[in-house]
């Protein structure tokens, strides 16, 4: 018994969780939990502030990694075996359809949640100084999410996959100068074939997930370093300079401002350096509004995790991921549609491949990346930001409207067909 | 080593390092660009001229081409790949036009763009007669739509 206790204590070296010290040590002595602060602001935990969209996105990514690894056990990235393996997963493998459904719905959910998360961050003005770069990292993560969805779309090697990727990669070939070569590099050939499937597989299971993990680490680290989750704007208190204590600095240097320590905390001062911290500091009044991460933050995160997993599982029970007939390069289905999140792009492309397929999306991405550097208005209050809010809302509405048009209002030959009209194919 | 030498050698060193990185990146790029393409050949025989009927074109599925045969004018071969985004166009005998299912481009019987987002007319490929009397199509050689092979 003593040995068991000794082993346990060698693993978990913190004080009991009934003490404040134990609650703190749980966080900062644990490599996985120490990305959290030991104490968090109460308002940051409110659901209606962030809707936990960042957490949901991250949890969906975890579902994708785990189900993805499971699916890899039964998948050979080579035609026509790839399609046979999909059929196996669909009909022969125990729980195969369920895992594949989970992977698909989590992927779609991740695209949606990443986008909603971006909207939330924009509307609360949380990309403003000092968080500009983290917004950029977030936009890159959005692009990687779309890249992961796009590369994953080819893997089933059915008609849907083949033609969506044919259309998608041809859009890229309209890029000036490098377009054609870029497409060859991506496909490893002149058209979507064996080489393309292998390359998309490598991107999907190795390259892009690694990049997502790397950038997610930076993203989380920055959230923490930039002062935690950004506070709701109506909770922002004007910073009181007099409340801060000035710790000594060399005579001619800028004094170092830090918050006054509350009496019940223990600090260890390792080194005194001069200069102002780049991140938001907590004033003593705000210190009063904090609670220990354990259990308040962790319980909420666990609930969101379980909610996310449960939702995806329920969806996977009742909705099946589509699998059409095997890819046939000779027969283009009519209409041939890209994945839904690219249908806005396809709608633009149906008007002009260069303008709609290359120029417009490139400008959109550049605009998103540049937002924190162009919007120099420091205020986060909606009243001071009417103009930017309208422009962003227009961007969001335009994107959603294009996707709705592409998804529901386009029929054979990309003709305007409302969803309530039934079209009989024209005889050849 | 004096200050001048340090900066001279330092510049040489940094330049050498940058070149090495550039060459390595170039090599990685070249590695990713396949040296051999295992796709279908661009030049191939499609069979005996007598196999093709007059009138409506014959669609060859694997090669993605339409073979036209006309009593007076002879043979012509059109690409079935839409110039917009690479979907396979279909031929409608009713209006003798080519229709693309992806974005609604329509091409005339000569391959000219009638409607839709396609930026260029359909390609026409050179068709020749081999010594053993078969038709050979070369997709690397495009020809004007007026090109015909009389057999």
Short description:
The complex is a heterodimer of chains A (428) and B (151). Chain A has 428 residues and is mainly α.
Number of DSSP helices of chain A? Answer: 15
Most extensive interface between two protein chains, with residue counts: A-B, 37 and 29 residues
Question: What share of residues of chain A is helical?
Answer: 55-70%
Number of strands of chain A: 4
Overall structural class of chain A, as computed from helix and strand content, comes to mainly alpha
Q: Largest beta sheet of chain B: what is the strand line-up?
A: 1-10-9-4-3-2
Domains of chain B (count): 2
Rg calc of chain B: 25 Å
How far apart are the first and last residues' alpha carbons of chain B, in Å? 83 Å
Strand content of chain A: under 5%
What would the CATH topology of the largest domain in chain B be?
A: Rieske Iron-sulfur Protein
CATH class wording of the largest domain in chain B:
Mainly Beta
Main structural class of chain B = alpha+beta
The arrangement of helices and strands of chain A along the chain is HHEHHHHHHHHEEHEHHHH
Count of spatially separate domains of chain A: 2
Which CATH top level class of the largest domain in chain A fits?
Mainly Alpha
Low-pLDDT stretches of chain B = none
Radius of gyration of chain A: 26 Å
Describe this structure in words.
The complex is a heterodimer of chains A (428) and B (151). Chain A is mainly α and 428 residues long. Chain A contains 15 helices and 4 strands. Chain A has helices spanning 2-11, 20-28, 47-50, 53-72, 81-91, 96-123, 132-154, 159-172, 179-187, 194-225, 284-288, 293-318, 343-349, 353-374, 386-408; strands at 39-41, 245-247, 256-258, 290-292. In chain A, helix 6 (96-123) packs antiparallel against helix 7 and helix 6 crosses helix 12 (293-318). Chain A starts with a helix and ends in a 20-residue tail after the last helix. Chain B contains 1 helix and 10 strands. Chain B has 2 domains: 1-37; 43-143, Rieske Iron-sulfur Protein, CATH 2.102.10.10. Chain B starts with a helix and ends in an 8-residue tail after the last strand.
